Amino acid sequence: AQSVTQLGSHVSVSEGALVLLRCNYSSSVPPYLFWYVQYPNQGLQLLLKYTTGATLVKGINGFEAEFKKSETSFHLTKPSAHMSDAAEYFCAVSTGFQKLVFGTGTRLLVSP
Amino acid sequence: AAGVIQSPRHLIKEKRETATLKCYPIPRHDTVYWYQQGPGQDPQFLISFYEKMQSDKGSIPDRFSAQQFSDYHSELNMSSLELGDSALYFCASSPRDSSLTDTQYFGPGTRLTVL
Lengths: 112, 115
Fold this sequence. Notes:
By secondary structure, chain A is mainly beta. Helix content of chain A is about 0%, strand content about 50%.
């Protein structure tokens, strides 16, 4: 079985500060890992994904994540937060062409 | 680029009524997934279809059924609605072509409110 743990239901940063959203996974087989963003009353938008290959993955809107197998982590980072980054972020895992198992989400708050 | 289409976007029903949610996947996507997201919750997998056959089943109540049609659109049928069924229902589609990495593209969701 697979699972995802997102540490911190809420993360607050100032505009221009580093964003770090944590995600740890559990999987008995090599995982596919995803980060999705959800703005209020909207659907889920894919930020980035890791399947195979390079462990540092770059996504949209300046976000990136690094797959660390030894730490079973896939933390999401952005060097400089923007007000428009305020949203709910979900980490998810699958084993390829299978259902996504989501974490409980982290709400990112950005203050001016 | 074409996206996943879901209809209706909003639906209000009374308890014990039925509801039908529709999903139109991205063209040439042959796999459809359904997820339920309760208020303040993460999305939970309900059911999926590949080439019109059910491929996986999650925590979907027996009151719910779904199918995928020959044009690859899918419908989620919900009967004997309960207050707890109030949620955002997402459909996602993906191509099964092995030359492409597995990515699920989500629709905007249908917000179901049961009164």
